Structures are given as structure tokens and as C-alpha cells.
Structure prediction request, 482 residues.
Amino acid sequence: MHSNEKSKASGLESYPTYRGLPPLAGLCSMQDAVDRVWSVEESTERLKRLHYVVRRLYETFTARITAEPIYELKTAFSHHAYLCSEQITSIRKRVSEMREPPLGLERIPHQGLERLMDEVIAAPTTELLVLGLYEIVVPAVRAACSKLAIDAHPLADAPTVRLARLIDFDFTAIDDFGTQAVACLVNTAQRQESQAWRDMLSDCLQAAGRLDGTQPSDAAVPAPIYSSQPYKYDGMPKRDERFIDPFNAGVNPEAFLYDEDFAPRDKTLMMSYKRLREIDVPEMMASILNEIQDKPWEFHMEMCRQLWDEARHAMMGEVGFASLGIDWSKIPINFTWSRNLNTQLTAQERHGVLFFIEQGLMPKTGKRFEWEVGVASGSPLSALFQDFDWADEVLHAQIGRRWYVPQFKSLKESLEYGDECWSKVVSHWGAYREQGLTKHRNWWPDVYQEACLRWGVQPDPLALAFHETYETKRADLKALKA
Prediction:
């Protein structure tokens, strides 16, 4: 007699509970709990396959942030990398709970999955990248999660069922964005030209027996197309055509912000610029995550959270300009900070600069001061954004204390190292001008006058005349190399 026949014979279809309450905490029926066939081995194997693909997705999203020109993709990749990192952490925790030491989480589960992810990260164009990510890999993750939630024993393996649903929840947001991104970026001709490659990616999944391995296959793993040579991270920041004059360092917003002669309302405009300019932080942090490979997973998890926060801060600046009806694409959003750090320092030195800056934002003259400016300005939006920006930066300083400071004898030594590393960076302010890359135009008066028009006030003559540059000072107002 089969198990379901035994269940029926035992009367489990009408299993009695107190006043008809759902049995088994509402997880499933009594009959389902008796009938379902499952094992720890099956659960862990599927989770390990998910772990491999989601971690490779995390690596792909972070690796492609810096050299991806399109701003909306930079921010989306930052968000999607963060969502992946959270779910990777959850998978690692769940596998560790199921008597699996050593966990085997770094093992490549199937060559087909390896070829799939190698191809996607190596996609030579933005259009191919979004097709591979959002039409092939992300749907495969969702399908594997949906099947795992259905197949796993709803009572014995309830934590895995919950985890599969949570992963699918996060990946629904990724999937939704990806569907829209593909529709916006990929035309009919590009789709047709990519057909062979997309078929090849599908063949990789078929050879692997699908992402979760539930469909055994003797199909061969297809030959590589773009991954014949291992992917190499590109640390040179790129921007789309809306980012005019990106070498422009003709305005020093920190000098304006900390000058007591200027009004809080006017400073909120400069803070919107500072926030939007923070898109260069994910561009730099991606290099750390790609080039420092000797850290445990927890380092990547926390640093990716910080990377995502910085992308959010950039979008806060974007919203700040939008709230005033100001077109930010008419403002030079400088990228020389990420460019210079990525090309002149090692990953360890960049981490030192990052921590030095984050720690420098903790005193009253840092993030608290910016929040106070937002409050004093009378702008609820500015106060809100600076409130959360301050909270995020406190977290980032803590992350640095966990993962950066222990490499030194003391906090003082770690800060001195970061300061020294930043001092090593040559700004090329004059060289960029001599090479014709920028004239370091003072864009502030035009933007300020437009904002005053929106506010319905007359410009402050002193603020209108502001003209300090980055020629001799860095963002913390210390002298720098020319």
C-alpha cells in the first residue's frame, strides 16, 4: 500500500484538531506531512546549487558596476548585489544547520552552472549582460526556489521552505526590474543577434539538469563563447552621455558646506550634489570586493551592504534635484575620485582611504552636522535624507572597525595609514585641464540661481560668488598633490 493510500486508510484526510483549527501550525495537512518524501541530503544539495549561482550573481553584479556606463544600472546592480548577499548569508546559515561540516559551499556543483555564470559575467555589452542576467539566470533561480518550496517537507524542513520563499520574494523584485530593463535596452535586432548565445546559456542549464539538478541530463556542456578567456575586472569608471564634463573639479562642495557664512537652505542644494556624486563610491568599492579575495564571506556581506547604501545615497541626491525640478544632467558629476583611487592605489590602500573618510564623518562636523543643516533649512526631504545618511555612515564606520582596523596595532595607526594612502593620490587637476578633458567650469552659480527661482527667493550674492575648487584641497579640505 502506498503512503497516500495508508493516509487515506488511516483517516488522515479528516484528522481532527481542536474546533477545526489548522493542524501543524498551518504548515500543511496531516496527510501531506505523512506522505511527503524528502531528506537532508536532497535539501542541502539543492541549497548548495542555489548558493553557487546566487553567489556568482553577486560577483557579477558587483564586478560590472564600475565599467557600466548607465547610471540606473549602476544603482540597480548595487541593489541586486545586496539582495544576493543577504540570501547567500541565509543559505550558508541553513546549510550549516544540517549536519554538513565541512559545508562544501565553495564546491562547483556542476560544470554547466560554472559555464553559465562564466559566460554571463563575460558578456561584452550591456545588452547581452542584461539578457543573460535577467532572462536566463534570475528566472532559473526563481524556478529553483519555487520548486524547492513545493518539494521540501513542509514540517521537517520548514526552515528551508521559508528560505526558498524569501529568496523568491527578493528575486521577484530583481526579475521585475530586469524585465523592464531588457525591454528598454534591447531592440529586436539585438535580440535576434543574441539568440545563439542565449540558447547556449539555456543549454548550460539543461546540461546541469536545471539549476537545482532535478532533471538529470546527459547533455554535454556547450563550448564557451565569451568566456574562452577568464573575465577580468575593469576598474575604470564609465558614465553614460548624461554625465557631462565628468573630469570637472571646479567646485568644492565641502568648502561651501562648512562655511558659516552660507544659509542652510543653500547648503541643502550642495548636499544634493554631494549625495548624487556618491555614485563614485560603489564604483570604487566594487574594486575592493573584486580584488580582495582572501576574506571570509562575512566581509563581502557587510561591505556589499555599504556599497548598496552608497548607491542609495546617490539616488537621494537625484531625488533632491528632482524635487526642485532641476535637471542634474546639466551639472558635472565628477568621477575622478573613483578613477584616481582605482588606478593609483591597491585594493588595500583604497580600503584604507574609505575607512579614513567614513571615520572622519563621525564627529559633530560630519554627518550630524549635515543632518542639522537639513533640519535648519526647513526642508523635510533634506532632513529625512540626512537623517538616514547619518545612520548609514555610523554603520559603515562600524563595518570598517570590524574588517579594516584589526589589521593594525591600533585605531590611530589604521587612520594614519588611510590618510597616507589618500595623500598618495595625485589629483591630476591641472593635467586634466591641459589635456582638454575639462575646463573646471564653475557650474555652481547657474544651478544656485535656478534653485532660487524654484524657491521663489533672491540669490544671496555671497553664495552666488562662491568659486572654491578642488585644485589644492581634497574633500576633507586638506591640501593635496596637484
User: Anything to note?
Assistant: The chain has 21 helices and no strands. Residues 39 and 164 are 16 Å apart (CA to CA).
